[in-house]
Design a protein that fits this description.
By secondary structure, the chain is an all-alpha fold. It contains three helices and no strands.
Length: about 140
């Protein structure tokens, strides 16, 4: 974007704008650091959740096979209880996947990209103001 720097008439206005831009940049750098950490955490979490969910699904399938093969009795009841616990664990993992899965990771990556672009624009703004200040 082209800024209307030609309308700035004093060095003091340039200094004020540069101070404001420096504060904005510091805030954005902090936000970028936070977004980088969140993105890294989401990346790790999404992989772990997917792996754990696959393991639970495999275990549910195996437990269903065992239940089908067992005669009525304590062993079969224990296997049914185990399956219920596994299905609950699956439910919890699927809920976590919504909050920390690949979709959430992509949202965090977008947030990080937006902050990076804002930082680039602050640098462009600062350069334009600095150039105008030198011209005054």
């Amino acid at each position: 974007m082209s800024y209307s720097t030609s309308k700035i008439t004093t060095v003091a206005d340039c200094d004020l704008l540069l101070a404001w831009a420096a504060k904005e940049k510091a805030d954005l750098n902090f936000k970028k650091l936070s977004e980088e950490r969140l993105t890294n955490n989401y990346s790790t979490a999404s992989i772990e959740i997917d792996a754990e969910l696959q393991a639970v699904l495999t275990e549910i399938t195996a437990t269903e096979t065992i239940i089908a093969a067992l005669p009525a009795g304590n062993s079969k009841e224990d296997a049914v209880k185990k399956k219920i616990r596994l299905e609950y664990k699956k439910f919890l993992l699927e809920n976590r996947k919504e909050s920390y899965g690949i979709v959430a990771l992509l949202e965090k990556e977008l947030d990080l990209t937006k902050v990076t672009l804002e930082l680039t624009e602050i640098d462009t703004f600062t350069a334009a103001i600095t150039t105008r200040k030198a011209a005054l």
